[in-house]
Specification:
The complex is a heterodimer. Helix content of chain A is 32%, strand content 29%. Chain A has helices at 20-28, 46-49, 57-74, 89-105, 122-130, 146-150, 162-169, 182-192, 197-207, 245-252, 320-324, 326-341, 344-347, 387-402, 457-461; strands spanning 4-8, 33-39, 78-85, 111-117, 136-137, 154-158, 174-177, 223-228, 231-236, 261-264, 267-270, 275-280, 283-287, 290-293, 298-317, 349-356, 376-384, 417-418, 424-425, 429-439, 448-454. A ten-stranded mixed beta sheet of chain A has the order 12-13-9-8-1-2-3-7-4-21, sandwiched between helices. In chain A, strands 5, 6, 15, 16, 17, 18, 19 and 20 form an eight-stranded antiparallel beta sheet that branches. In chain A, strand 8 (223-228) and strand 9 form a beta hairpin. In chain A, helix 7 crosses helix 8 (182-192), helix 8 (182-192) crosses helix 9 (197-207) and helix 12 packs antiparallel against helix 14 (387-402). Chain A is elongated, with a radius of gyration of 26 Å. The model of chain A has no long low-confidence stretch (mean pLDDT 95). By secondary structure, chain B is α+β, with helices and mostly antiparallel strands. Chain B contains four helices and four strands. Chain B has helices at residues 3-10, 16-19, 42-51, 56-62; strands spanning 22-28, 32-38, 70-76, 81-87. A four-stranded antiparallel beta sheet of chain B has the order 1-2-4-3, covered by helices on one side. In chain B, strand 1 and strand 2 (32-38) form a beta hairpin. Classes of the chains: A alpha+beta, B alpha+beta. Chains A and B meet through helix 10, strand 15, strand 16 and strand 20 of A and strand 1, strand 2, strand 3 and strand 4 of B.
Chain lengths: 462, 115
């Protein structure tokens, strides 16, 4: 069987701009496909919930342009998944228009683009639930009920390789996919080439984060994968990086609970018997993955819901007596807030005091908070359905530290330093409501593919 | 430096920071944070593995969480690594959350002594 080669320039397209030198070096090797993922849950629930993006459009365009020009010049397909951070329909539409603009700007000859949408309406999920289907909680979460779906502002289904493989078979030269398993983007063309799901998804798992699977640590540098059945060779393309058995194996366990299993719609890759061998200075070969098919396809659903409007204030403390009694001061401040605005749970507001200098990073998990920090920085975070009320609560939550009544405070002109007596408007607060899986009859059934012929010729003629 | 670390130095006992080449934490999905302790030298990996200085009990005590929140604990031979995962107090990026990527939770592991 023929060897398939894949060039991957970035582990999160657009998040920071890709590095062009190693990408161009990879293009010189004439890969069969150029593939990158563009989304993540790591950025928190806000972008999905608010249908916004975490990456600047200029950087997304930069990366898409580099990939598109190279792919069209080489005459090979390009695949991008989880478009614009979230993989919502907005993200897909945005990337499709960017591709159209880039094609026009460079006068590219016509090519066929497939756009695959992955958004799923909370109401449609509720209807499935009502029809008796289970939306099962992952990672110890309870199964979804109607109330949870009602709290969900927006949701996406996470596609496996099937819709992408189908689009490629139908002649797509550029695939812009909504939310997708990172490894599925790579698996799709490999499955079409006749490789086993074990090899296809495992190759994707190894390659999805580009240069993160090499050493020393560098982001946004390209890597090349050359794949045959049960033989995946990954090469670092930056001259200062190597792909080693240690770097490749440690990437296989990155960002996951279980280093031995990678779940996709149609089953999971079992990596427990994988082997890694150095085959040249910059290349490591991986083999030994197995694939365990699921009894029925299960699609992961991600959803985010709005909690409320968010306001922030910054307050500092230097008085050692105030610092020693910070918990008392906060308790006093909270009591005043409850007096004025009602109990938080009933009145629908929340205040968090983040104490930087004591345990602002780890909170209750901090094993050794300093007994007497020199100073403390407090970020006061306030949530409330109503923005004006959130602002008022946040102002009082901060000023109550300034007015904290503690016996023996010598500084009677103010018990805290207000960085500025100002309430900052944060983005609205969201939470991950859905981290669930749902059975489907067909791995493609939640995803919608449309084909567009993109032509930059009009601009070229003009 | 903490008192325990000072004591360890005095006893000439190395800590995880001395022996591991990578100690990191990172989100594993939206509900968990996973920790990787990776060794360049196979001997260091075996020494830590065989000394049993890391276990779900140790992790729970160190991070002051019930053991039920330590959801996974794996010795990952191919990468010379020990890996464990804890369930977050609330999903990443929720209001009140402190570390949206989960990337700064590993520091307390540095001072674990290894006989």
């Amino acid at each position: 069987m023929k060897e398939i080669s894949i060039l991957c320039p970035t582990g999160h397209l657009g998040f920071t701009p890709l590095e062009k030198a190693s990408f161009h070096a990879g293009c010189e090797l004439k890969p069969d496909f150029i593939i990158a993922d563009s989304g993540s849950c790591d950025i928190g629930p806000y972008p999905l919930g608010a249908d916004s993006q975490a990456s600047p459009p200029a950087w997304q365009r930069h990366d898409l342009e580099a990939m598109l020009l190279a792919a069209r010049r080489l005459g090979v397909p390009m695949i991008v998944g989880s478009a614009s951070d979230t993989g919502t329909d907005r993200g897909v539409a945005q990337y499709v228009s960017m591709i159209e603009e880039i094609a026009a700007e460079h006068g590219l000859s016509p090519f066929r683009l497939a756009a695959i949408e992955a958004e799923v309406k909370p109401e449609a999920l509720a209807a499935r639930l009502a029809s008796g289907l289970l939306l099962a909680g992952l990672d110890g979460r309870a199964d979804a009920d109607e109330a949870l779906l009602a709290r969900t502002s927006r949701a996406v289904a996470v596609m496996g390789a099937e819709p992408i493989a189908a689009a490629l078979k139908a002649g797509a030269e550029v695939v812009i996919a909504g939310r997708a398993s990172d490894c599925a983007l790579f698996a799709a063309p490999l499955l079409n080439a006749g490789l086993s799901p074990a090899t296809a998804y495992y190759a994707g798992k190894l390659m999805e984060c580009a240069s993160f699977c090499c050493e020393p640590f560098m982001g946004k540098e390209s890597i090349l994968g050359r794949i045959r059945e049960d033989d995946i060779r990954v090469t670092a393309l930056h001259p200062g990086q190597r792909c080693t058995p240690a770097s490749l194996a440690s990437h296989a366990m990155y960002e996951r609970r279980d280093p031995f299993r990678e779940h996709v719609v149609s089953g999971y890759v079992d990596m427990s018997a994988c082997r890694y061998e150095q085959i040249d200075e910059r290349t490591t070969r991986a083999s030994g993955a197995r694939f365990v098919a699921a009894p029925e396809p299960m699609v992961k659903i991600e959803g985010a819901g709005k909690v409320g409007e968010r306001r922030l204030a910054i307050v500092g403390m230097r008085d050692p007596y105030m610092i020693a009694n910070i918990d008392k001061a906060i308790a006093w401040a909270r009591a005043r807030l409850a007096e004025r605005f009602g109990a938080p749970e009933e009145a629908g507001w929340q205040v968090f005091y983040h104490l930087y200098g004591r345990d602002g990073v780890m909170g209750p998990m901090e094993p050794c908070p300093p007994a007497a920090p020199h100073e403390i920085g407090v970020v006061v975070e306030t949530l409330c359905r109503d923005g004006a009320l959130a602002e008022e609560i946040c102002a009082l939550a901060a000023r109550n530290l300034f007015y904290a009544r503690l016996p023996e405070v010598k500084g009677t002109a103010g018990a805290a330093a207000l960085m500025s007596d100002e309430v900052l408007t944060g983005k609205p607060g969201y939470e991950w409501t859905l981290n669930h899986v749902m059975p489907v009859k067909d791995p493609c059934e939640l995803f919608r593919t449309r084909f567009v012929t993109v032509s930059g010729a009009a601009r070229r003629a003009a | 430096m903490t008192d325990t670390a000072t004591t360890a130095r005095r006893r000439n006992m190395p800590t995880l920071r001395d022996l591991a080449s990578t100690i990191r934490s990172k989100n594993a999905g939206v509900d968990h944070i996973t920790f990787d302790i990776i060794f360049k030298e196979r001997a260091n990996f075996e020494r830590v593995r065989d000394a049993h200085v890391l276990s779900p009990e140790v992790v729970a005590r160190l991070f002051r969480i019930p053991e039920s929140r330590v959801t996974d604990f794996v010795v990952f031979e191919p990468a010379n690594a020990i890996k464990f995962t804890i369930r977050r107090e609330r999903p990443s990026g929720s209001p009140g959350e402190r570390d949206v990527f989960g990337s700064q939770q590993y520091a307390p592991l540095f001072e674990i002594e290894v006989p």
